[in-house]
Input
Amino acid sequence: MTTALVKHEGGISHAHSAPVVDESRKDLLKRTICNGASDSELELFVAVCNRMGLDPFARQISAVFRKDKGEKVMTIQTNIDGYRLVAERSGKYDGQEGPYWCGDDGEWREVWLDDKKPPRAAKVLVYKRGMSRPLVGVAKWSSYAQTFNDGNPMAMWKKMPDVMLAKCAEALALRKAFPNDLLGVYTNEEMQQADAPEPQHVVDAEYAAPPTQPANDPGDLLAAIRDCETLDDLKGMVPELAKLSGETRDAARAAYKQRQGEIEGGAAA
Output
């Protein structure tokens, strides 16, 4: 991909003179990252990739399919680094403060030291050239944490709850600062709660668990596997995979091996 610097009011942005995904890469995209997407969904995904200048083959942006009322729905997602890249390219990004975290007392702290209890909220302030005040993003644990039916956090939300919540707060602040650049695309961390299983027979979903707990939905486990960033994270999913059987177990094992290969390949590179 080639880029050129273009002056605009308030700064300099990168105009993409060549698309990130051209016609020669569409077929590969259809067979891999967008496998199962309709032609219209593929065209939409390609258009967003090229508009934002993010490369799906470098895992900067992805198409995630979920069931909504029985219908398959595509969501276009990026990671926090993709948001940061788009903000930096705008030429108006002027840094940030935070993250800060708070517990039940509501007092903001520069570091979260409680390893036994996750923070209740995280806050990030983003500065934009031409604006007199920072844009503030506040993310609550109850709004974003990805949990199993029993209320326990999944994958990275269990291992690094403060980091995950801070990413959500930063994404909120960046989207406030650059709404036109980040329109319609959310970060993986913000959307992970959409992959969590809905509680069954629960009076208070945040604190109570169903009296009889079945194995977690394999679709949720596949999403958790996809979000694992290290081999240790993957190993933490093994007990949940052991609850599966038949075709769902085979699908989960295949996803596990695929993600394992991606992590090991990234480490080797």
User: Anything to note?
Assistant: The chain is about 40% helix and 20% strand.
